[in-house]
Each structure stands twice: as structure tokens, then as C-alpha cells.
Design a protein that fits this description.
single chain; alpha+beta; Heat Shock Protein 90; 5-stranded mixed β-sheet; 5 strands; elongated
Length: about 280
Amino acid sequence: MENTNKSTEKIIYIILIQTVLVLLAARTLNYYHNQLTISDVLITIVAVLNFGVCIFVIRYLLNAESLHKQLSVQKNHLNAMDNSFKQIRSERHEFINHLQSIYGLMLYGKNEDAINYLNDVASVCRFNSNLISISNNSLKVLLLNKKNKADSKNIELKLSIESRLKSLDVKPTDITTIFGNLLDNAIDAVGNNENHKRKIFFNIIETTSSYHFSVQDTGPPMGDEVKEIFKQGFSTKGFNRGYGLYLVKSTIEKYEGYLHYENDTKTFSVTLPKREDIL
């Protein structure tokens, strides 16, 4: 963004300087032709002063715009931190309740139930810990909502986050279109599995120029229809349902990204480029 502002500033300066030079050239010609009057001198002085004022105003406006954008970024970061602190306080309150429940189970000799309870608590803590590390609030909220949806169907959603996504420049609505559809499809895919096989894995890794996401589920692999899944209108769910993956693919391509599906591992892979001016 800083490079863009500098380029704009240079163009405006060049135009203003050219204008002043043309004006001075015209006055100089008038002088040599003995046609220079007092009004011409005053006009020249006013033009030069006006040029200086324009330079000052332009620099002020560009700096103000840059400062406003920096403040907006800082505000988003503070909101993310505030949400994280609220989540931590909420977890602390819940942790005390969990300890009391585990103590009660052990007190009555229900050791196996206590172990299962501990495993569930550990799973929730790991999920929330990964969730806090994501700086993109839209994706964070989406994953939390899909976690609740998966829990209601006895499906385990696991996260592996190796990036804070600080340079991800994707609109909140497009975040929902891409990852909301992929996660909904994964939830549907494992819905008929046995309870212990209902799992979805959401992974994020980062490279120098891109972010790489993957959504993997433990549902059965697709048949021959796998070749058609990204076509508009195609669906295995019935009439007028085949738009989710088509929208996912077209939205990703809008950001010059890529979508790939590996049928053997039941994995959708998404690649989105980083925004260069906030690297």
C-alpha cells in the first residue's frame, strides 16, 4: 500500500510541476516580448504559492489515508486479541467445572469415564488453542461454528494450524463460500460413518508466497463422479444442489488461487497467494 501511495504522489507532483513550468515559460516569453505586466507577476507569484499549498495538502491527505489504514489494521488486531482474552476467560471458567466433574467421577470409582472425559476436554482445549492462533476473524468464527455443527452430529473436527494468516487478503464472504462449503461437504461425507470414524481434519501451512489449506474427511471415496465435481450444477445430493464446489473453485480462482481434490485421501487442497503489500 505504501508503494501505491508513493507512485500516486509522484504522478501528482509531475503534473503540478509541468503545470508550473508551462506557466513560468509563458510568463518568460511575455517578459522577452516586453508584454509582462504587474498582474502577470502577481499571477505567477500566486501560482507558485498555490503550487506549494497543493504539495502540502497532497502529502497531508496521502499520509492521513495511510495512517487511517494502519489504524484500521491495529483495530482489527486489538479486536482479535480481545476475543482471544474473552475465550481464555471462558475456558478458565469451564476448566474449573470440568475439574469438578472429573473429581466426582474418580471419587465414585468411574475411572474409565473420567479418562474419556479428560480426552474430550483435551480435544476441546487443543481446538481452541489452534483457533486463537488464527488472526483472520472471519475464518476463526467460521471454524467455531462448523465445530459446533460437527459436535451436534458426533463428528470430531481437528485443526492443525501452522500460520497466523497475517497476509491473507480474502473477503469475509469469500472465506465463508470457500471453507464453509468444503467443511459442510466433509460433514455430510462422514455423517453415515460409525461414530469412531467420524473425523474431519482442517490444516493450514504457510510458504514464502502462499497459504495452503486442506480439508480431509474419513468418509468413503467418490466413484466415477469425481471427474464432474467442479462442474456447475453437478451434485450427488439431488436436483438443484450442485453449486457449492463450483462456487468454491470460481471464488478461489478470483484470487488467482488453486483448488485440487485427491480422491484416495479424501482431501481438498486450497492454495491462496499472500498479499504482497502486507508481507
